[in-house]
UniProtKB/TrEMBL annotation:
It comes from Lunasporangiospora selenospora. GO terms for cellular component: mitochondrion. It catalyses: Endonucleolytic cleavage of RNA, removing extra 3' nucleotides from tRNA precursor, generating 3' termini of tRNAs. A 3'-hydroxy group is left at the tRNA terminus and a 5'-phosphoryl group is left at the trailer molecule. Residues 862-1098 form the Metallo-beta-lactamase domain. Residues 337-395 form the tRNase Z endonuclease domain. Residues 1-21 form the signal peptide. Keywords: Endonuclease, Hydrolase, Metal-binding, NADP, Nuclease, Signal, tRNA processing, Zinc. This is ribonuclease Z. Belongs to the RNase Z family.
Amino acid sequence: MASHAFIFGAILALPLVLSRAFTAHKPARTTLISPESERVVIIGASSGIGSELARIYAERHAHLILVARRLELLQQLSQELCPSAGSIHIIQADVTLPEDVSKVTLESLQALDGRVDTLIICAGVISVLPFEELAGIDPSKSWKNCSPSSLAESDASSSTSSSERFSHLMPSNAQAALEASQRIMNVNYHAPLNLTSYFLPALKQTGPAGNIIVVSSMAGKISAPTRSIYCGSKHAAQGFFDALGMEVERSGVHVSIVSPGTVSTDLRNSAVDLPPTDSSPAASEKKEVAGTKKGAISARACAEGIVRGSDLRLHNVVMPWFYHVSIVLQIVSPSLILSTGTPDCPPSIALCFDTQRYLFNCGEGTQRLCTESRFKYAKLQTMLFTRVQWDCIGGLPGLLLTVSNVGSQYMKIMGPENLLHALLSARFFTYRNRMEVMAIEFNEEHKRQEQDDFLRTTAVFAYPTQVAQDQSTPVHCDPQTQDPTEARAIRERFLTGMFNLTRFGDNIESQQQRDRSGPQEPRTGPNLINLLMAAGAACTPKEAGGAPRMSDADADLDDADTCVTNDTGDASLIKGLQAMLEGRGTTQPRTRPNPVALSYICQCPDYKGKFDAAAARALGVKPGPAYRDLVNGKSVLSTDGVTIVNPEQVIQGARPGRVFIIVDCPSTDYIESLVHSKEFETYYCSSSLENDKADQNLIAECIVHLAGKEVMTDTRYQAWMKRFGPQSQHIIVHEESCGQPLVWRDHALSAFGLSELDQNIFPLPFYDNQPSYDVQGLATSKPLEGVRVMAAKPLMTFHLEPRPGLDLSDVVPIMELERPPQSVSLNHAAQSHEPDDPIPGKDVVLTALGTGSSQASKYRNVSATMLSIPGHGNMLLDVGEGTYGQMFRLFGKHRPSPLSSIPMQSTSVDGQLKALRGIFISHLHADHHLGIVTVIDNWNKLRDKDHDKLYLIGPTKFNSFLSELSDTQNFGYDNVQFIDCADLLISSDLYHQQPGVSDPRFKVPDVITAVLSSSTSSKPSVQITTDGIIHNQTATMDDDSKGRLQGLLDVTGFREILTVPVNHCRSSYGISFCHNQGWRILYSGDTRPAESLVRLGQAGSVPVTVLLHEATFEDDMLIEALKKSHSTMSEALAVGEAMSARFTVLTHFSQRYPNIPRFESDQSDSDEDHNGSNEPTRKDQSMTRAKSCANVGLCFDMMQVRFDEIPRLSSFLPALRRLYGAQGDDSTEDVNNL
C-alpha cells in the first residue's frame, strides 16, 4: 500500500487543520433532542435502506418527510407508517433536477414548520463494468502481446491516412463512458451537494443538534475493480462531506458518512453502465457476478446502524465491523518527512498517516513553510517537543491560534517538564475557546510513555554532563514556596482559561466592533458585562487614582475568542471566564530551566496480518463474532466446543509495527547520558549484543539525528550509531550539515525581480548552499563503516510502510539566484529626486523585515521594521515571528568588516544585533512579537560588556510573558530593561492643545479618550523648551523607570519618546521618536485611523519626518477594515496628511495582496457622495491619494531605504505593476484571522 503522505519543503512542515478522528467530546444527540420530536427528511425513501430508515424513525414517533421518484412506493410506505409516525409527508421528486430540490426544500420546511433536525441522503446508483469495457478499449491489446514486427509494418505503411493509421489506438465507446460518469456523478455527488446547500440554513437554525447523514459506500474508502466510476463518485462525496463536516461543525451541524459494505438491496438494477431495459442473460450475469450478495447485510441492519451512528453523532459509520480492518490497513502507511533546518526555519520532523499527522518540534517559521508549499493546516492533532527551548517551541503559540481558526478542536502537546509553563506564559495573547489543548509532560519518575491509535511513543532522557540532576527537586516549581501538585493544578486551571472547548457563537471582539460601528440590533443571550462581573472581574478595572488604564489583567479581553450564544448556559461561560481572568491577573508558580533533551522511540501500530477465512472455516470457526475476536488477538472455540483456535493459526504475516527514532543531542555534553540510555538496547543490532534476547530485537528503520558537527564527529557518538546495525537509515538534520539554502523560494524570486529596480534598496537574500562539513565523507570513514548515513534534503521523505526506504523523488533542487526569473522589462526605473529642502535624518535607514499581517505568507513575513541610526545603533519596531531569520537573509552570516567605523556599516547579522539598542512592541497580537525571544537570545550571546543593556518598550503584560518564559530558558532577559508603554503616554494638556482632525473616521473609543484625559491630574503642565524637547513624562515614573528611559535616550540619541493608545485592541499603542538631530518618526502599530495618533504627530516643534502606518486593506475592503480595526490605504494616507508628515510609508498589508496592493482605486471619482455615515466616499479617498502619492512609499520585505531615498519609492510603482502584473491574487489569508 503506497503511503499518501503529503509532503513539503525545506523544514518539514506538515499540513495542519483539524483532525476529525476525535469524537469523544460530542455529547449523545439524545441529550439534545428527544426521538419523538425529531424532524427527519429522508431522500431515497421508497425502497432499500431508505424505506427501512423510515420504518425505524416511525417506530420512534418522529416527524417524517419521505422523498423519492416512485410515487406509488412512497404512498404504500406512507400508509404503512402513518399510525406510528408523529407525522408523515411524501414528496415525489428527482433530486438530480435543481427545480425539484428547491421544491423538496420548500415543502419540507412548510410541513415541518421551518425546522429540520436530520437530513438523510441515501439515493444512489452504481456501475458494474470495468472501465476498459465501458469505454470500448480492448483489454487484450497491450505492449506485452504486440510484436515489434507488427509495429514496424504499421510504421512502414504510408498509403493510409494518419486517422486510419492510428484508429486502432482510439477507444470505440468513449462517449458512453463519459455519459455514464456524468449520470453517476449527478446522483452520487452533485445531488447530495445541492440538497445540502438547500437544507443547510435550516439545519443551522436547529441549534446544536442538526445532523446530515450521507449514505455512501465502502467504495468511497477502498477502491475495487469493476467499480471505477462508482468509486470515483463515492470518493468525491467522501471528500466533500469530510471537509463540509469540518466547516460547519462550529455552528453545531454534524456530518456523518455511512460506509456500508454489500447490502441486500436492488441497487445493482440501477447500474448506469448497462441499458435499463437490458434483460438478456448476459446482462443479468454481469449484474450477478459484479454484484454478488455473498456476506451482505440486510437493509434493516444497515438502517439500524445508521440511526445508532446518528444518535451518537459518529463521523464515520462502517458496516459490517470487519471492514474496519481493511480501513486500518489502508491508513497505516506512515511516512517521515525530513527537512534541513536553517536560521529562518529550525528543523522539525513530520510523521504523516493518511488520516493523522504528528509534528516533532515547531520552531519559528513552521506556519510560513506550510503556506510556502500551498498546504492547508489539516489533520495535525499531536505535537512532540524534544526541549523546552525557543528554537523548538517558538512556532507553537502562533500555530495553535491558526489551527483553531480553521476549525480544529483538539491538540495534544507532549514534551519535557516546563512545556506547559512555557505555553502558559503566552496566555496573555494565545487563547481560544473553540479548542481543547492537552499538555503531557514526560518525567523520569512517573511518565515515560504515551500511546494512541497510531503511535506508541517512549521518551528517552539525556542530560548534560555538568548538570547533577537532583531527582528530589521538581523542575516545574520552586520547592521552597510551592508544592508540585498544587503548582500543576494551578497551571491546569490556567490552561483551561486559555483553551476551553465551549463553542460559543460570537466573540467579544465582534461585539465591541459592533459597538464601535454604531447602533445594532439587540443581542440575544446573556449580557457580557454581567457575566464578567459574575466571574469576579469588572470589564474595565481602574487604578487607585480612578483613571482607567490600558494594561490591567483583562488588557486584551476584547481579543479573547470568548463567545455567547442562546444555547450555552451562563455557568459554562462564567467558569471559562473565571479561569481566563485568573490566568491573566495571576503569576504562574516559579520554575527553573530544565536542561533535559528528549529523544523519542516511536512505533507504529502492529501489522495484524491478513485474516484467512478459509483456514478459520477449516478449523471449525463459525463466521461472525468469533472472526472478530481472532482479528483482535483473542483465542476462540471451534464449533465442536473443545478445540481452541489461536489467532496465529488464521492470521498470516503479522509483525510488530515499524520503529523510528528521533534523537536530539544539542552538544557533546549530552553524549554520555544519551548513549548509555537502556531504552535503546532493544533496537541494537544483534551482532553488537551479548545477551540471549539479541535475536528478538526490533529494527529501527530510520533514526533522525538533530545534531551538529561537533556531536557527529565525536567517536563516542559514532560508536553508538554503529550499534544499530546496517539496516537502520541515519539522517542528519542540522544547518551545519545541510548549508543555508533559500527556504522562502517565492520571496527569493520576488526579491530578485525587485533588485532589478535598485540593488541597494532591494538587496538579494543571503544564502549558502555549501554545508560546513561533508556528511558523506563522514559516512565513509572507518568509525561509521557499514552505517547508512546521509544529510537531510529539502522535501526528503522516508516511507515506513509498506516497505521502508528513502524517497527522494520530490526533493526540491537547490536554488541559485543566477538569472532573472521573469522576462518583464523594467524600463520604468525610478529617477533620483533632489528634495527642495534638506531632509532631516537623511542617512537614517528604514529596513522592512516583515510587512504582512496576521500570519506569514510566501512573499511577506509578519510585522517587523528596523530603524538604523548612524552613530547610535538600531531600534526594532515590532518583532514578528521569523524576524531573526529575515535579518539573517538580509545581512548574511559574515563577520563585520574591519574597515567598519560604526556598527551600522557592518554587513553581518551579528553586527546588526550587536548594534541593537531598543525594541518597541505595539500590542499583544502574536504576529507582532513572537520573534523577540530569538532576537534577544542572539543579542545576549553577542554582548561585549556585562553592563550592555537592551531596552524594551511594550504593554505591561508583555513583560509578564517574557518574565515567565525566562524561567524556562535563560535567553538574556535579565539584561533587558523594560519600559511600560503606559509610562510614556503624552500628557493630557499637550494632547488637547493640538487641533486634531474633524474627520469622523478618526474618532477613537471613549476608553482611549478617558485614558488620555485622566493624565491631567497626575502630570504637571507641559513645558516645551526652545529646542522642542517636551519635559513632562518622567514626572510620574518611579526612579527605576526614569533611569531606564534615560538610558534609552542616551544610547539612541532621542530627545523624546511618546506614546498614545490607538484604536485596535486593548493595550495597543502608537509611538513617536524625536531625535536630537532634528528628525522624527511615528509608528502607528495596528489601528483604525485614530485622532490620538494625529494629535501625537501634531505635538511638539519637530514635524514628523516619516509616518510608518499600517495599511492592511485596500480601499474596497472598508467593511473588513472596520470589522477588524485596521486601516485602508487611503485612510493611512489621510492620517499622514492630517499630521503633515513629510513622508508616509505603508506596511502591514493583508496577505491577500501577495506582491503589490492596488495603490490607486479602480473606481471612478464620481461614486456616490457621503451619505452621513462614518465611511468616506470613494471621491474623498481618491483626493487624499492624489495629494499624498508623491511622498508615499510601499514596504516590501527586506527593503532598505534611507530617509532621503523615500521620494524614489513612489516612482517605482509603474515598474512594480509591470513586474507583478502577470501574477494573480495568491491569497492565503483568511480575513477573520486578522
